[in-house]
Specification:
Number of strands of chain A: 21
Radius of gyration of chain A: 25 Å
Distance between the termini of chain B: 15 Å
Helix content of chain A: 25-40%
Shape of chain A: globular
Number of helices of chain A: 15
Structural class of chain A: alpha+beta
Oligomer: heterodimer
Strand content of chain A: 15-25%
Number of helices of chain B: 14
Helix content of chain B: over 70%
Strand content of chain B: under 5%
Radius of gyration of chain B: 25 Å
């Protein structure tokens, strides 16, 4: 009797659940978004998910060029003020109109102490609503690249946030879960229909989306499943249980390409992989050279650079999914040029000579700290480097660890030689120069990822200057000069830019985004 | 008897305390969650502030006592990764794991016992040596290999061979997930839908294979032993049919140890479903744990490990009680020890 009742109940629920899923796109990747709260996690997968529900003032097209989002036009009206003209007649998916008040509210929310975007937009002093369709953003001094920063700040509804008591981003100190963690309501192309973290997220087309005219054809429904195990993810794609996989492992790409009915899209990712050298300390912490620091000598750094056969790493370790680099920033970033990106030649003989000239004809030993779960094939890259440096007599003791141990070690400056990668959300060179090359200065909040001890007053000055310079030509010159110094001084040994490969069914048309963040309103499914 | 129960309870409590303390010591080696919780722009000062807010700067002892204090009131804190209360997460994931374990245990019994009987009765035949060879593979092959192999054969390659055998194209099994689920109160079950039932086949089989072969080999050896005993000879002498001798007399007597072993193994199934859940993206507690380890999500790891140790301790506690109830010698020894000590 009980069983019969259960069966009836189940049947009733199923019939409710099975709505016609016309043009549904099922996609998978390794890790789910951490939260639907758009301001509490500044993390790739989280942003990739949330941008389907929430819009920013300015969007990015598949070429990563800035395109109008909730703002139609923007211009500086004073050295420290940017004016944004908002798009008229935009409605949130609950039917309420979108106005300048929502923008002011969202920016203040993103600047709150519990926001993970607080330091990202720390140059913003004030945000003012001038009229319902005009917003002024006032910065601490001129900020020529403010529009680039706005592409990451998603806009929430003030009324909705107040109603659900989520006017502040979630805090880890609270015991309870806040409403915005699993619920979302924005102006974007989709509405959140079901959110089961780590299990399944379903989004349905937002009928009131402002861009319906520009994007008439995007999938009616998105079904996202995180699949942690790489082999299972690929199996799901090959067996047709998902239509799109964001991060198939590099060794499986060939197999996917050979499978009828599947295809891949590839592009250079905005992320460069490189080695850092502690050149600032008086003595290396992890080396057999005592009383002096071999890395302080540029000849040693250059010798190591020239001893690394990056093409072998590309062919053997990366299965050709990498672009050898001479610069620690990638194509697509403002200030990148192919000339700067040229590598010094791979030349073991002159590397040995340089090392001998520097006084280390027999090499020395040093410990290399390497993550093993952060970048594509990171540990194997380090193993290859270890072998290559042995050729010139540098004995590398490789220590590969999880990212949860690797990065804290770096931040304690408890390293002599390390591998790290760097992406550029603003797509502007300043972001790279200020975090990686400027002299580490906690008070000025610059150089916070510069664990090399590298310091160059001229470069510091240029980096500070380009933050404020509004004249584009002058600013470009500053960027070029700073890169010239950075490349010549060689505190980092560049390795390669990562390539990203998206795998999908033939039914799917989807342009690839170099920031590895799929925006499905640009996609289509047959 | 009461003294025995009390002493056992105290021992169990001590084990749990020791396990959770060890967990906290181990957490020091998992690393720092802060990097996963803030963007790369966060300044060192902001990272330090967050570390301070979460109490990560305190010594292991202080962190452990704080955890205990909260755990006593049923508060396991909030996940660093998902920003949700840990108790909610565990309650949400438990049904998936328990259903998987239940189906796996049933499969182990349903295949293990008949095959064990078969191989005991028909020794030195082709079919039973085939079964024994298969059981060797089941004992020796690691779970993730079995899982990947099943996915390869029954969901990837299946698209090619199923139609060739005249099976419908959608006969193949899903390679991940739970299929459609139905809510029975807070319990989300996948056992009432077609897609849910289909989805549980491969992971449950993967998880059960080791137990299945264990049961098979156990039943076989017990059966062989029982068949040699006197009362089986007497049963035969009484002229009972083969099936009555084998199933009513012999099998019944082999099952007692089998049931005991399976009971204890259920705890192991729950704890070791981690690998199966990862391979099949089964949204259970094991997967929650693995993801938490990678994120250094200490509240979830602590709660999960305490819960698993609780399951083990509870099962052992009841097994001990049962043994004591069955075997009076245990009770007497304990009672004598109790009076001598006190």
């Amino acid at each position: 009797m009980f069983v019969a009742r259960l069966a009836v109940l189940a049947a009733a629920m199923l019939s409710l659940a099975s709505v016609a899923d016309a043009k549904s796109l099922r996609w998978a990747s390794q890790g789910d978004a951490l939260t639907m709260d758009p301001h509490s996690q500044n993390e790739g997968p989280t942003t990739a998910m949330n941008q389907h529900v929430y819009d920013a003032l300015i969007g990015r097209d598949p070429k990563l060029a800035k395109v109008p989002g909730l703002a139609l036009a923007w211009k500086p009206i004073a050295p420290d003020t940017w004016e944004f003209k908002l798009r008229p007649d935009v409605k949130f998916s609950d039917g309420t109109p979108f106005t300048a008040d929502d923008v002011v509210f969202s920016y203040n929310r993103a600047l709150a102490p519990t926001s993970d975007f607080r330091s990202y937009i720390s140059s913003i002093k004030d945000v003012k609503a001038i009229d319902p369709l005009t917003v002024h953003i006032i910065t601490n001094g001129p900020n020529p690249i403010l529009p680039d920063y706005t592409t990451s700040i998603l806009i929430m509804s003030k009324a909705w946030s107040e109603k659900h008591n989520v006017t502040k981003p979630q805090s880890f100190k609270d015991k309870e879960e806040t409403y915005a963690v699993r619920n979302a309501m924005g102006t974007g192309p989709y509405i959140l229909k079901q959110r089961d973290p780590d299990v399944r997220t379903v989004m349905a087309k937002n009928p009131t989306f402002w861009g319906a005219k520009d994007f008439p054809d995007y999938p009616d429904e998105l079904v996202y499943t995180p699949i942690k195990e790489a082999a299972t993810r690929v199996a799901a794609l090959i067996s047709g249980q998902v239509d799109f996989v964001l991060d198939a492992p590099l060794q499986d790409i060939a197999r996917i390409k050979q499978t009828p009915g599947l295809k891949t899209e590839e592009t250079a990712q905005v992320r460069s992989i490189f080695l850092g050298l502690d050149m600032g300390s008086a003595e290396l912490k992890y080396s057999d050279v005592k009383g002096k620091n071999p890395f302080a000598d540029k000849r040693v750094r250059q010798a190591m650079y020239q001893a690394i056969d990056v093409n072998a790493i590309k062919a053997k370790v990366m299965r050709n999914f990498s672009a050898p680099a001479g610069l620690v920033t990638s194509p697509g970033v403002h200030g990148y040029t192919p000339e700067l990106d040229k590598r010094l030649s791979y030349d073991v003989a002159s590397a040995k000579k340089l090392l001998a000239e520097a006084g280390y004809p027999n090499g020395f030993s040093v410990t290399l700290d390497c993550p093993n779960d952060r970048y594509n094939n990171d540990e194997q890259i380090c193993q290859a480097v270890t072998g290559m440096l042995a050729q010139i007599g540098i004995k590398v003791d490789l220590q590969a660890r999880s990212k949860t141990l690797h990065f804290p070690k770096l931040q304690k400056k408890d390293t002599s030689f390390f591998l790290v990668g760097w992406g550029v959300p603003t797509l502007d060179s300043h972001y790279v120069l200020t975090f990686l090359y400027q002299t580490n200065d906690a008070a000025k909040k610059v150089g916070s990822w510069n664990y090399t001890g590298y310091t160059n007053a001229k470069l510091d000055e240029l980096a500070d200057g380009m933050l404020k310079e509004v004249d584009q030509a002058k600013r470009d010159k500053m960027i070029a000069d700073a890169w010239a110094l950075a490349v010549a001084d060689m505190p980092y040994l560049p390795l390669h830019h990562q390539l990203i490969v998206w795998s999908m069914s033939d039914k799917v048309t989807m342009p690839i985004f170099a920031n590895d963040s799929p925006n499905f309103k640009y996609g289509k499914i047959k | 008897m009461l003294a025995f129960i009390v002493s056992r309870l105290l021992q169990s409590l001590a084990v749990m305390l020791a396990v959770s303390f060890l967990c906290f010591v181990l957490f020091n080696f998992v690393g720092d969650p802060i990097n996963n919780m803030v963007g790369q722009e966060a300044s060192p000062a902001e990272r330090a502030e967050m570390r301070h807010d979460l109490g990560l700067e305190d010594s292991v002892g202080v962190q452990f006592l704080r955890f205990l204090g909260n755990a006593v009131t049923g508060n396991f804190g909030k996940s660093y990764r998902l920003a949700r209360p840990v108790s909610d997460l565990i309650v949400e994931r438990m049904p998936a794991t328990l259903e998987l374990v239940l189906v796996a245990a049933l499969l182990a019994l349903a295949f293990g016992i008949p095959l064990g009987v078969l191989t005991a009765l028909r020794r030195h035949t082709v079919d039973s040596s085939a079964v024994m060879t298969f059981s060797l593979a089941g004992v020796a092959m690691p779970t993730f290999v079995i899982g990947i192999l099943l996915i390869y054969v029954f969901s990837v390659e299946c698209k090619a061979w199923a139609p060739a055998l005249g099976l419908p194209a959608d006969w193949c099994f899903p390679s991940f997930g739970r299929g459609e689920t139905v809510n029975l109160g807070w319990w989300k079950t996948g056992l009432l839908t077609d897609s849910g039932l289909k989805a549980i086949v491969l992971p449950a089989f993967t998880l059960s294979l080791f137990q299945m072969t264990l049961v098979l080999r156990l039943v076989r050896s017990q059966m062989l032993e029982v068949l040699r005993t006197d009362y089986i000879k007497f049963a035969r002498a009484r002229g009972l049919t083969d099936s009555a001798v084998h199933f009513r007399h012999a099998l019944k007597n082999t099952l007692l140890p089998v049931i005991t072993v399976i009971g204890i193994q259920v705890g192991g199934l729950i704890a070791f479903s981690i690998i199966t859940e990862t391979v099949f993206q089964w949204p259970g507690m094991g997967q929650l744990f693995i993801q938490s380890v990678q994120f250094a999500d200490i509240p979830v790891m602590a709660a999960y490990l305490v819960m698993v140790s609780f399951i083990f301790v509870a099962i052992n506690f009841f097994v001990d009680l049962l043994y004591a109830a069955i075997d009076p010698r245990l009770r007497l020894d304990r009672a004598r020890l109790g009076t001598a000590g006190g």
